[in-house]
Amino acid sequence: MSQEGLVETLGSSGDSHSGLRTPEDERRADLATRISRRFEIKNVQEDVFDLINKKAYIGGILLAGLVLFWWVLITEGNDNIALAPSFLFALNFSNVAITVGIFGLLSSAFKSLSREKGQLLPSLASGAMIIVCVFFIFEPLVYGFFTDTLTSSTGIWRTSRLVILFAGVTFCSTFLVEAYLLFWLKTFCEAEGINIIDNGEPVSINDVVAVE
User: Fold this and answer.
1) Which residues pair with 196 in a beta bridge?
2) Can you tell me the distance from the alpha carbon of 124 to that of 144, in angstroms, rounded to the nearest whole number?
């Protein structure tokens, strides 16, 4: 590959990290390449810093909103949680909401991380947790419309809150994981002495870190 247009800014040591590279170094470089392409990073100091701030800021807002939502509409939602325990493990509504929140958070995180790292098990776990969440979310509707355990209005009210909770933790997890990936990229580039990844043409970080 032609090195025209390729710019590398060395770290404070003034040495590029271009010696013998181990398989682990290659995997880290490949991961950095995927992250930089995903977020279209060109200048690390300008783009990454701004994106980390933005992603973490929105993630923090969503996290605080979820805490308030939980406090107001789950624990204080004027709902008799003893009614209609779940078919799975006989969980009451409060425990179902906790499970949906945790599984939704982990499922989104596993999916995002697996997408970048190409790992199998996190994707399998993510898919399994999604199925459990969908079951818990729509179970109150079944109770409300097809049994006498809950009224239809209570079933709709429970499902609506679980949908909001699941959507909230999914978005929150996505922003937090993206902030983590960008922070990892920043750390990687600082360790490798890289500032400019792309100077107008698509450039693999494998090529950047190999420049002498």
Assistant:
1) 43
2) 31
